[in-house]
Design goal:
membrane; ribosome binding; elongated; transmembrane helix; 380 residues; LETM1 domain-containing protein 1-like; mainly alpha; mitochondrion inner membrane; 19 helices; 68% helix
């Protein structure tokens, strides 16, 4: 049968040659040698095998985009990479808010853990003298931060509560803690707080002038009034002059039990402490223990932010002051605080007025005095 078919091919049935050869190659694919004379057959075998391999590759690979798409993709990535810095310069406020919020979350969580550790140690009965300055400062600061920011976090996790964060950034001074404030906001809010505190200084001096008339010893009475006159003329008091007043704050007339409610109210607001009498004394004693820890550890290792906060807590506006000026003020404060104890804690409450009333940085924030003559009680 093979011979007649071969003869038909030789006689000119060219179209059959391709079909017959192709069919033969397909039916005897495993036994046909690649060295055979039919080139078309070999090409078809190669083509079919390549198609099968290509199909397998496409099933487990991602197909590369076309050249125009790849070009656009490369250009887009290059543009984004190179323009991020330019975009930050164009809208710096948005990037500042993002970085501040991100770092604020981290700092707040870290302070929460440290606050819990300090609180448990205090609740277990450890003495305040056993704590470091940073631990006591954290406890004092975070005690006021936690209720506000903690409530914001609770609301944020409620359904639809995410809107509270944009609202908090509209009113950061009231709804956020210092962890989420920018450096400019910290300085601005510090000035606002100090301005409110400083307006009570004149009233405190007025009450001191009134109480001085109850001092039986004429020499002591004249000394107190000379101190007040110096402050009225912006003369800075020496720490030794303030230390000489200590006996008058241990008893009449300047002991806390001898002060009027209005007098105590001004003292509390001048240091942003509690208005309740017992709580005011506890807050003042707590500040005294922070002074003790600061004196023990020194001020040289304190950061600028820590110095600013320490000055604000003690009635001094740190804006515009050199680092050494802040340290000098804190050292004078600590030396006076070192002779104070619970019985004379009233001196610590009056210390911001006695030590910082005439300082230029404070005078810049003070309103013009409305008291013409000392001794006239205010209605504030």
């Amino acid at each position: 049968m093979a011979a007649p078919i071969y003869e038909m091919i030789v006689k000119g049935h060219r179209s059959w040659k391709v079909v017959l050869t192709y069919t033969t190659c397909r039916s005897r694919l495993n036994s046909v040698c690649l060295a055979g004379p039919n080139i078309v057959c070999n090409w078809n075998i190669h083509y079919c095998t390549h198609q099968q391999k290509e199909k397998q590759v496409q099933e487990d690979k991602v197909q590369a985009p076309a050249r125009p798409q790849r070009y656009l993709f490369d250009k887009l990535i290059q543009f984004i990479t190179n323009s991020s810095g330019k975009l930050e310069k164009r809208i710096p406020s948005a990037f500042q808010v993002y970085r501040t919020f991100k770092s604020g979350i981290s700092e707040f969580v870290s302070d929460s853990k440290d606050f819990y550790k300090v609180s448990t140690r205090l609740w277990s009965g450890e003495s305040l003298q056993q704590f470091k300055r940073k631990e006591l400062e954290l406890y004092r600061q975070f005690s006021s931060d936690l209720p506000v920011v903690g409530l914001i976090f609770v609301i944020a996790f409620a359904p639809g509560g995410a809107i509270v964060f944009p609202l908090a950034y509209v009113f950061p001074r009231f709804l956020l803690s210092h962890h989420f404030w920018t450096p400019l906001q910290k300085e601005e809010f510090r000035k606002i707080t100090l301005t409110k505190q400083l307006k009570h200084y004149d009233y405190i001096l007025d009450h001191m002038h009134l109480l001085s008339q109850h001092i039986q010893d004429k020499e002591s009475r004249d000394y107190v009034r000379s101190i007040i006159n110096k402050l009225d003329t912006n003369v800075l008091l020496k720490k030794s002059e303030i230390q000489e007043l200590l006996p008058l704050f241990e008893g009449k007339p300047f002991h806390t039990d001898c002060l009027s409610i209005r007098h105590l109210r001004h003292l509390a607001k001048a240091l942003s402490l509690s208005l309740r009498h017992k709580k005011l004394i506890k807050d003042a004693l707590f500040l005294h223990y922070i002074d003790t820890a600061m004196a023990r550890e020194g001020t040289s290792s304190m950061t600028d932010e820590e110095l600013n906060r320490a000055c604000c807590w003690r009635g001094l506006n740190p804006s515009g002051l050199q680092r050494q000026e802040k340290i000098h003020y804190l050292e004078n404060w600590m030396q006076i605080s070192g002779i104070i104890h619970e019985k004379s804690i009233s001196l610590l409450l009056h210390l911001p007025v006695l030590l910082s009333y005439g300082l230029p940085s404070n005078r810049a924030l003070m309103p013009a005095s409305t008291i013409v003559k000392r001794g006239k009680l205010d209605e504030y």
